[in-house]
């Protein structure tokens, strides 16, 4: 958002006043109190993150008419909520079936799966999608462990030992960020050498897991810093100049969201409305249901993404990635499969690059 704000001001747009609210890594009590503080300071637009955080304040978002966007922790509990829009595919639910089809095609000898995750995000993916679709994808396949865990857990030894006792051939983790990193580190340190499929790949998890992060797979929205469209090229250049690093998925999403807000402001002003009111911005988005996106492979034109008028979410490209020698490599393109009657074979669109050993080099 900070990079976007500079871009907008340099392009002749308004100076955006960005105020940070600390939800203390997902505390619902802190989320409510911080939201009320932000509203008290005049905030009319909110960029949120965690799924549980946004779910805990959906009523307040509607009450105070604060147009809100979540490009991080998308979840079913945020669907169809007034004033709340998600710019990410449903975390876990949308990519998991296509990713499992890819894993079966890549590792046909894998039969037994252990899956785990927190009860905040990707709950349906863990409880419904994996148990339902894996035996269809893999005849004779079974789920030997399906475990919830507390958010922020760091001592993974006992839970990992319990899951490994079921002799899985593969782990599927719905855990996010540092939770994912700690769990993968524990799994590898207990000598599991098979493939691990995560619901995302993040720098936070990589930092915690260290060398054990190499070889893992992740499935999520397919942002690529090399997308050649004009908006993405400008974003990547600005991000590198600011942070001396390539942007990752979350940075791209929140840059995109701030651009959406700017576009809405201009549209409301052009229509003679009051662009300082969340209600006016939200009404404009409900009317247009379109925004510019970084997720476009057209080198000449910035892409458009369409919002679902009822569900308040979007449809973006998704992929399976693998960490290979410290780099995230796209190995397959996937798309969502309807639960429970969709055909999982349709979830795997195409294989892009070959996978390497799921175990990091010693």
Tell me what you see in this structure.
The structure is a single chain. This protein is of the alpha/beta class and 362 residues long. The protein has helices at 2-10, 28-40, 51-56, 58-64, 93-106, 123-137, 157-164, 177-189, 203-209, 230-243, 249-270, 278-288, and strands spanning 45-48, 67-70, 84-86, 112-118, 142-149, 170-173, 196-198, 217-221, 290-293, 303-306, 318-324, 327-334, 348-351. It has an 8-stranded mixed β-sheet, with helices on both faces. The protein has a 3-stranded parallel β-sheet with strand order 1-2-3. The longest helix has 22 residues, at 249-270. The model has no long low-confidence stretch (mean pLDDT 94).
Question: Mean pLDDT, as a whole number?
Answer: 94
Number of helices: 12
Strand percent estimate: 15-25%
Q: Which stretches are poorly predicted, pLDDT < 50 over at least 5 residues?
A: none
Radius of gyration: 21 Å
Give the proportion of residues in helices: 25-40%
Based on CA inertia axes, which overall geometry fits?
globular
User: How are the strands of the biggest sheet laid out side by side?
Assistant: 5-4-6-7-8-11-12-13
Helix-strand pattern? HHEHHEEHEHEHEHEHEHHHEEEEE
Specify the biggest β-sheet: 8 strands, mixed
Protein structure class? alpha/beta
Distance between the termini: 39 Å
Structure summary, number of beta strands: 13
């Amino acid at each position: 958002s900070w990079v976007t704000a500079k871009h907008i001001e340099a392009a002749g747009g308004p100076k955006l006043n960005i105020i940070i609210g600390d939800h203390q890594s997902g505390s619902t009590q802190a989320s409510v109190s911080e939201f009320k503080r932000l509203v008290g300071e005049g905030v009319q637009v909110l960029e949120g993150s965690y799924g549980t955080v946004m779910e805990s304040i959906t009523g307040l978002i509607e009450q105070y008419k604060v147009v809100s966007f979540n490009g991080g922790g998308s979840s079913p509990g945020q669907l169809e909520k007034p004033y709340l829009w998600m710019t990410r595919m449903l975390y876990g639910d949308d990519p998991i079936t296509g990713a499992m089809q890819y894993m079966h095609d890549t590792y046909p000898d894998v039969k037994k799966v252990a899956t785990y995750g927190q009860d905040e995000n990707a709950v349906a993916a863990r409880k419904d999608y994996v148990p339902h679709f894996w035996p269809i994808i893999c005849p004779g396949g079974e789920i030997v462990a399906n475990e919830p865990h507390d958010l922020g857990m760091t001592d993974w030894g006992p839970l990992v030992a319990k899951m490994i006792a079921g002799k899985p051939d593969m782990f599927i983790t719905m855990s996010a960020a540092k939770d994912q990193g700690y769990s993968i580190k524990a799994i590898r340190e207990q000598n599991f050498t098979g493939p691990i499929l995560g619901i995302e790949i993040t720098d936070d998890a990589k930092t915690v897991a260290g060398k054990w992060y190499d070889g893992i797979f992740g499935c999520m929205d397919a942002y690529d810093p090399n997308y050649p469209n004009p908006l993405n090229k400008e974003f990547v250049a600005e991000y590198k100049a600011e942070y001396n690093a390539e942007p990752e998925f979350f940075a791209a999403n929140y840059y995109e969201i701030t651009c959406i807000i700017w576009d809405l402001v201009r549209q409301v002003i052009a229509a003679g409305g009051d662009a300082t009111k969340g209600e006016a911005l939200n009404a404009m988005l409900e009317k247009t249901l379109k925004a510019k996106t970084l997720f476009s492979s057209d080198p000449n034109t910035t892409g458009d993404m369409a919002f679902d008028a009822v569900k308040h979410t979007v449809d973006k490209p998704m992929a399976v990635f693998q960490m290979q020698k410290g780099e995230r490599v796209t190995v397959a393109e996937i798309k969502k499969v309807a639960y429970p009657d969709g055909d999982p074979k349709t979830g795997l669109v195409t294989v892009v690059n070959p996978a390497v050993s799921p175990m990091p080099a010693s």
